[in-house]
Amino acid sequence: MSDTLSPQIRFGSNAGQPATRRDGIAKVTGVATFAADNNPEGLLYAVYAHAKIARGRVSHLDRAAAEAHPGVTHVITPQNRPELQGDPSAKPTMFSFRTEVLQDNTVRYAGQPIALVLGETLEAATEGARLLAPQYVADPARVGLDDNAATSFEPSGFGLPGGESHGDLEAGHAAAIRSIDVSYETAAQYHNAMETHAVVAQWDEDRLTLDIPSQALNLSCAAYGYFFGIPPQNVTVRSPYLGGGFGSKAIPTGPQVLAILAARMTQRPVKLMFTRQQMFGPAGHRGATRQRLRMGVDDTAALTVIDHDGLAETSTFDDFVEPAANASQGLYAASALRASHRLVRLDVGTPGPMRAPGEASGSAALECAMDEMAEAAGIDPLEFRLRNYAETQPGTGLPFSSKALRECYAQGAERFGWEGRPLAPLQMQDSDGLLTGWGMGAALFPCPMFAAEARATLRPDGTALFETSAVDMGQGAWTSLAQIAADSLGLTLDQVEFHAGHSSLPDGGVAGGSGHTATAGGALHAAGGDVVRQLGELATADPASPLYGAGNTSLVARDGWLLMEEDESRRERFADILARAGQTEMTGTGRAGRAPEDAMRHAMNSHGAVFAEVKVDPDLCQVRVTRLVGAFAAGRIINPRLTESQLMGGMIWGTSFALHEAARHDPRSGRIVNADFAGYHVPVNADVSGLEVITVHEDDPYVNALGIKGVGEIGVVGTVGAIGNAIWHATGKRVRHFPIRIADLLIALPPADPRGSGL
Ligand code: MOS
Question: What's the pTM?
Answer without folding.
Answer: 0.96
